[in-house]
Amino acid sequence: KALEMYEKSLQIRVATLGSQHPFTAATLRAMGNVHDSKGEYEKSQEMYKKALQIRLATLGEQHPMVALTYNNISNTYFMKGEYEAALQMQEKALQIQRATLGEKHPDTAST
Description:
Order of helices and strands: HHHHHH
Number of helices: 6
Low-confidence stretches: none
Structural class: mainly alpha
Number of strands: 0
């Protein structure tokens, strides 16, 4: 049911805000979270990567939301047993968090 509601939300956001809006990226990430919780890692990764493209284009590389999305992608790689890819994504997330949030921020520490 949640995925169905996010699909409707995505349609509305694309129609009203456009496909490259940060809120559209937020909906895609939420959809990825639902797929992730269902163990559908290919689908969640697809949603996260779409969200990442939008966030990179609209927020730039050095933004905490970009780091969060890299972290999401990392988790899907990890769950699929693709540990090297997971590590690469995690390192990108950590670099951004250090630069934008600092070493002592809880998000940086948890990465």
